[in-house]
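for the writeup, i need someone to sanity check this before i put it in the appendix. the sequnce is what the collaborator sent (i think, or maybe the updated version? ugh). structure was predicted straight from it, no edits. if anything looks off just tell me and ill rerun, i have time this weekend
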Amino acid sequence: MAETWEHTVAEHRASTRQRLFGAAMAVLAEHGMAGATMTAIAERAGVSRPTLYKYFPDVDHLVAALAREEFASFRDELDRIIDPDAPAVEQLEHLVVAHLRYFAADRARMGDGSLEAGMSPVVRAAVEEELVEHHARLVGILAAGVADGSLRPDLDPDLAAELVQHVLGGMRHTVRRRAGDPLDLAPPVIQMVLSGLAASDLRP
């Protein structure tokens, strides 16, 4: 009986937490970080402020948790679509497409009020911590590509991963600015990335 009750409580907390994330996302879309308040998020979620404070001490920690949740969801998507045993070039292509799909969804949810507008040190630290893990995944893909000969033998996987991350991160703004299907951007972005990374005989 105690286990059933604990399970019910855990489910309720998880459901409330997701509702708070959804409300925070909506408030951020309208007002950005600078205009997001605990009162606005509580009202949007349909909970009292005391209830919200039971979960998060302030907006910064709520948004930091939201950022971690978003990164975890994106990692799950990468795990689903990227075969770690596939050639590195193929993994990179899937990575580009996954970013475009995510940014397309982000455009619909976040509008112009992204986390970047007025990002606090607490949120920035959470994002940077998550990016370290994303960087490590990319380094692994690039190192495997050097080892299997599909990527340039003189490639520095760590530096190249950082540069590719900048390219992929910048695509968020491109997707926001451009109308139409974001996946139409995949071929030119993949070509640009592989032109600098692929072995000479495999460059597009």
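The chain has a mean pLDDT of 87. The domain at 59-202 is CATH 1.10.357.10 (Tetracycline Repressor; domain 2).
thx in advance!!
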